[in-house]
Write a structure and sequence with these properties.
Elements lengths: L1 H13 L5 H28 L13 H11 L16 H10 L31 E11 L8 E17 L2 E15 L9 E14 L4 E13 L8 E14 L3 E9 L7 E3 L2 E4 L5 E6 L4 E9 L3 E12 L2 E5 L5 E19 L4 E16 L5 E4 L2 E9 L1
Antiparallel strand pairs: 1-2, 1-17, 2-3, 3-4, 4-5, 5-6, 6-7, 7-8, 7-9, 9-10, 10-11, 11-12, 12-14, 13-14, 14-15, 15-16, 15-17
Length: 382
């Protein structure tokens, strides 16, 4: 092509006209002729994918990198591989064919790693001492005719393995005091006490069946009388893992030894669809919990919505000097936050409402009701 252009230029130089108009016409014709020559030689090569100057086929980046990549030595510095462009259609196809590709993250903001059994936060200790607990609560009086209740509770738990930690006897001595702030005409004691020892035996019968038996003898009174102060509470439950590690069913009874509700059915289920969600649909203490943060073998943070049945029966001495039995009952709904450290230590805080509040004496047929009140509760476990 270069020789053709040179020949055209030489011919034009020899035949170059002398007049101005003739030169213009001759130059225009030469330019058109040059363009036709260029198109004649260059256009077919461009269409066939060849470069005009080198006569080699045009290559994509991955093809041109192929020989270089093949010649690189094996080692820590590996050649860069160009990834193909991902289209929206290919993403849609991958989402339908690859399980979990677009599943919502379990804890995108706070969770650090996926929970595994090897990294799970243990809620017990491998030893005799298990935990020491302190907790307190307060229910607002809500007016001159209302009833305010404060509570302090402490307990110590030790474990006695009966062969293994799948077969445990937990011993928990505890002491609890309630402070009453009510109208004077009711003649209420200022303090009520509850002291006792909880004995709980838990065993795993096989891969799916487990059982728990607990009994708590104790004294519940104002420490001014001992008549009818001795109380025994207990529970007997059987658990069955319907879906292993996800869904368990509970059957049994709960004995409260109180005048208004002496015994209740202990039935319900525990559903754990993922390690971050847990539903305890158990009467009389339902609870829905969501895990907020998880540090392997360090701690877990949970937020929860729960409910419970409050109150009990105490032996008291009336202002007249006669012994009697006082029963208080309320229902509680609350929001809470809990931090669990590895080994069972932790802390919690709750805020909620107490409603359906009732107070009655055994020897008095009248029942005193109180309105809803704000509830605060918190505690520390070591």
């Amino acid at each position: 092509m270069k020789e053709v252009l040179l020949l055209v230029c030489r011919c034009a130089n020899r035949a170059w006209p002398s007049s101005e108009n003739s030169r213009t016409i001759f130059a225009s014709g030469g330019l058109v002729l040059s363009l036709l020559v260029v198109l004649h030689f260059a256009l077919p090569r461009a269409i066939s994918g060849q470069e005009s100057g080198y006569g080699q086929p045009r290559r994509w980046a991955s093809e041109s990198l192929g020989p270089w990549m093949a010649e690189q030595p094996a080692g820590p510095l590996e050649p860069v591989v160009l990834e193909p462009v991902v289209s929206a259609s290919s993403l849609t196809q991958a989402a339908t064919t690859t399980p979990g590709l677009f599943d919502s993250p379990r804890n995108s903001a706070l969770e650090i790693v996926r929970r595994r059994d090897d990294y799970a936060v243990r809620r017990y200790r491998q030893g005799f001492f298990q935990q020491l607990r302190f907790s307190g609560s307060w229910i607002d009086r809500g007016g001159d005719d209302g009833l305010g209740v404060g509570n302090l509770d402490t307990a110590l738990t030790v474990a006695i393995p009966l062969g293994s930690f799948d077969n445990l006897l937990l011993v928990t001595p505890g002491f609890e005091v309630d402070f009453l702030d009510g109208p004077p005409f009711l003649g209420l004691p200022s303090e009520l006490y509850n002291v006792g020892v909880d004995l709980m035996w838990r065993t795993q019968l096989n891969d799916r069946w487990g059982s728990m038996l607990a009994v708590r003898p104790g004294l519940a009174s104002d420490f001014q009388t001992s008549q009818d102060a001795f109380r025994i509470t207990g529970r007997a439950l059987v658990t069955w893992q319907w879906v292993p590690e996800q869904l368990s069913l509970l059957f049994g009874v709960v004995y409260l030894d109180r005048n208004d509700l002496p015994i209740l059915p202990g039935v319900g289920l525990i559903w754990t669809p993922t390690p971050d969600w847990r539903l305890d649909l158990i009467f009389p203490r339902p609870k829905l919990a969501r895990r907020l943060a998880f540090l392997p073998r360090q701690r877990e943070d949970w937020a929860y919505l729960g409910g419970s049945l409050g109150g009990r029966t105490w032996a008291v001495k009336r202002p007249s000097g006669d012994p009697d039995q006082l029963t208080m009952r309320d229902y509680r709904l609350y929001l809470g936050w809990e931090r669990i450290l590895d080994g069972g230590s932790g802390l919690f805080a709750e805020v909620g409402i107490a409603f359906g509040r009732v107070l009655e004496f055994e020897d008095d047929p009248l029942e005193q009701s109180f309105g809803e009140a704000v509830l605060f509760r918190g505690g520390v476990t070591y």
